[in-house]
Amino acid sequence: MAGSPGAQTGEGPYEGLRVLDLSHVIAGPACTRLLADLGADVIKVESRAGDMMRTLPIVYEDGLSTAFSQFNCGKRSIGLDLKHPDGLDRARRLISWADVVVENFRPGALDRLGLDWDEIHEVNPRVILLSISLFGRTGPYSSIAGFGTTPEAYSGLMALAGAALGVPAAGFGTPLADMTAGVHALAALGAALHRRQRSGAGCLVDISSFDCIFSMVSEAFGQAEYTGGAPFRSYGSCIVTAGDGRHVILAFPAEGWRKVVHAMERDDLLAVLERHGVPSARIRQIAENVDDPHLVARGTLQSVEFGSAGEHQVQCAPYVFSDATTGPRSGPPRLGQHTDEVLTDVLDLAGDAVDRLRADAVVF
Fold first, then answer.
1. How many angstroms separate the CA atoms of 301 and 288, rounded?
2. Around 46, how many Cα atoms within 13 Å sit in the side-chain half-sphere?
């Protein structure tokens, strides 16, 4: 079938793109996971403690969790101490190798390690640095600490989502700000690569989770700006409880009320709504999408081997190309699984040099 994963042929769209992943937790890894799905060679640098998401929220086995696996399939992991002078030197050599560097430390943290933008640009004038943080590198909020819920609260989206109940929504059940920042970083990279193709020069791309999640407020901002803060007017949607206890959302413009009133005269509500052209859908639980045939057919869900943890399904880059494949090339890496491989194959180090670095605890 056209557009199905089985119809995709060829390499990934970003095949050959070299990505150095200095990020952790969610926003940065979400971006680099998409890049890995699109064919990029992603090398993830981890400290001895490893990415904190390796332990959250449910652990398959030591160092491999449900969250880490979703955000890190298809990457290579090198254990590298960036605070050691030799470790920092190896990081600079990996920057020379890379087309793209991704980081999501607090603003200033990378600078204190000796890897500020000027240093990175000097090491590799063609490299693109995707820098992701809560509020960006500039502006009066840039030093505010927190997690993804902080920009979600600042953006107004929490207030908007809970407006019908009269209290703000405490969250969205998913790291919305972090994931949105990761997707926007991916989009910005395409523009940066196009610019580099014309100019030959790399650049710094400053991504703010607050900026990104604020952009999702969309039309509500236009209404607030025009009215000065009057209650938001939606297009008209409601959730109804069916006779079996499950929930259905009805979404319609004003004209749709006539259709709903007419439809409610029938017992088989869902079938009637569909026949009358009323946009409606039963509200699913997340678990109902496991093995969903549509998601599987489009390749948005794919099965991946997690080594001794068995085979599991993962969410994949939601893009279908006519002449390219997308999806993880491998499962999530164990901490430092590819250290020797990266040192020898990428940095061309001999075995005795690798042994010395290991003995000095520079790599692991």
1. 13
2. 29
Shared-domain flag, residues 242 and 340 = no
Give the pLDDT confidence of 133-163 residue by residue, as tens digits: 999 999 999 999 999 999 999 999 999 888 7
CATH number at residue 311: 3.40.50.10540
Which residues is 19 bridged to in the sheet? 42, 100
pLDDT > 70: percent of the chain: 89
Instruction: Say if residue 158 is in the same domain as residue 215.
Output: yes
Tokens of 279: 């946009």
Q: Is residue 206 annotated as part of the catalytic site, yes or no?
A: no
pTM of the model: 0.91
From the number of C-beta atoms within 10 Å of its C-beta (0-12, 13-18, 19+), residue 43 rates as buried
Reported as a single tens digit per residue, the pLDDT across 278-299 is 677 888 999 999 999 999 999 9
Active-site residue (options: 178, 244, 267, 291): 178
Q: What is the CA radius of gyration of the chain?
A: 23
